[in-house]
Design brief:
The protein has a domain of 120 residues: Response regulator (Rossmann fold). It has 18 helices and five strands. Helix 10 packs antiparallel against helix 11. The protein is elongated and about 90 Å long. 39% of the residues are buried. The mean pLDDT is 84.
């Protein structure tokens, strides 16, 4: 560990950036600065003191070593340590690059040890520093991405999130990528990560609701309805009735004639013990979708809890007529026939 140092990173290789930010935070006790390109880098270099610069060889040599040359021609930056991220094809240029002031090169793929060795070239105090061979930095990087999202720096947040995504499938990371894409108005690109996140974390209402929003914006209304129904059922299972009711209202707005909103609202009212209102609401769902076996079954359950056994039996019979494989309706009807009323 050394005294706090400010490192400016100009690089959009997510995997490299994730390792760099993690190691530099461990070694310098300071979050590195991230900028989106050469122009922003020049502005930052003029606005505040920076102790070192990291960029890719492609950035540094974009126009005949133009960026690196401009830095070295600035009297205030001639001695600025520069770390270049290079690929295998850049090895032949290593000697040329190293002639441009204090420069170190890290060849991809970037490792924690390589980062430490590169910066030890400029800051000898790092040479003997002990850093964990493996750090669980997902939470720290996610927190940094969250801060960037709050600051509306969505492109920068995506750098961190994509770096995490390359380390393996994490539903929170994938879900957050999808949410950022929604904020950017890029719903087509939000669909895949959100779909995968919802598979990996099937109990997440947040991902289901985000999926519903994406489907709506893409004009895929049936899929939006399915996602909202899943989210509503999850809220019901968690006894989060206010949220389930909110989604019932949203379903009514999206598909007012399907009965889906009324069916969810009926379940909310039933859970709250408001059986007379639940009966009316389930009946409304059945009226809107008379061929939906589940709606008939739900109406039957509410009637059974109200001790209207005749109505309950009729509802379960109708549900089975529409769907002979509906196990709940079959079980409830058998219980009624044998006098074993739940």
């Amino acid at each position: 560990m050394i005294d706090a140092k400010t490192v400016l990173i100009i690089d959009y290789d997510p995997a490299s950036l994730a390792v760099l930010t993690d190691v530099l935070r461990d070694l310098t006790s300071t979050d590195p600065l991230i900028c989106s390109g050469v122009a922003e880098a020049h502005d930052l270099l003029e606005a505040r003191p920076v102790d070192a610069l990291v960029c890719s060889v492609a950035t540094a040599t974009g126009s005949g070593l133009d960026f690196l040359t401009r830095i070295r021609e600035d009297p205030g930056l001639q001695a600025l340590p520069v770390v270049l991220l290079a690929g295998p094809s850049d090895r032949s240029r290593q000697a040329i690059l190293e002639r441009h002031g204090p420069t170190a090169i890290i060849f991809r793929p970037v490792s924690r040890r390589a980062v430490q060795e590169a910066f030890s070239t400029f800051w000898p105090g790092l040479a003997g520093a002990k850093i964990p061979s493996k750090t669980d930095w997902t939470g720290k990087v996610m927190a940094r991405a969250a801060d960037l999202i709050k600051a509306d720096r969505l492109n920068h947040a995506m750098i961190y999130l994509q770096g995490l995504a390359e380390k393996g499938e994490n539903p929170e990371v994938l879900g957050q990528i999808g949410l950022v894409r929604i904020k950017q108005g890029r719903c087509g690109e939000a669909l895949e990560p959100l779909s995968r996140a919802s598979v990996l974390a099937p109990s997440s209402t947040r991902f289901q609701e985000a999926l519903a929003l994406v489907f709506r914006r893409l004009g895929r209304i049936p899929e939006a309805v399915d996602a909202l129904k899943k989210a509503a059922r999850l809220h019901l299972e968690a006894a989060d009735l206010d949220e389930a009711r909110r989604l019932a209202q949203e379903l009514d707005l999206i598909t007012p004639d399907s009965g889906e909103g009324a069916n969810i609202l009926g379940a909310v009212l039933r859970r709250r013990g408001r059986l007379s209102e639940a009966l009316e609401t389930f009946a409304q769902a059945v009226k809107l979708a008379p061929k939906n076996a589940v709606f008939h079954c739900n109406l039957g359950r509410a009637a059974l809890e109200s001790r209207d056994l005749t109505r309950a039996e009729a509802c379960f019979q109708q549900a089975l007529a529409l769907d002979p494989d509906l196990a709940e309706a079959r079980d409830m009807l058998l219980a009624l026939n044998f006098g074993k009323i739940p």
